[in-house]
Prior knowledge:
By secondary structure, this protein is α/β, with parallel strands linked by helices. It has five helices and five strands, in the order E-H-H-E-H-E-H-E-E-H.
Amino acid sequence: MLAAIPDHIQQGLKVLFVGFNPSLRSGETGHHYANPRNRFWTILYRSGLTDRLYHADEDQDLIALGYGFTNIVSRPTRTAAEISTEEYAAGRINLLRKITLYRPQVVCFVGKGVYHAFSSKDAVWGYQSEPIVEGTAAFVAPSSSGLVRMKLEEIVDIYRQLAVGLALPKRHQQQ
């Protein structure tokens, strides 16, 4: 059985990115969004959230930029369909505890399904009308999985809304 990968989380984060759970590749490497078909790192760069292209083995370095990483469920699986109802229930409690304790400025759910699994609510892309906890905004972005059928530029445009909401300089946003 693959080990859970460590959260990268601390007080004062601009954004806490939340996924369903680690991929098998992430479980093997110990890094978030490590599957080579996952476009997460490219999306961050092209949206202007980072000023260079980072790679999965640098995930811990994004803490310095104010970005953290966690998942609703820590167990690596091939697909989110392998996650049990009990794991989701425990994961919701743990995630709420982390958000309440660390109070990031924004929680970015990487996929509408992730947001729904946490809140049982439907979502629109972008900032949600209700915060997760008082003082922490909820942002829903498309999954970065290579299985997502949205065009990369459409996904990048949604993540750009996050960059704009954080008031990041537009000069870092890639066209």
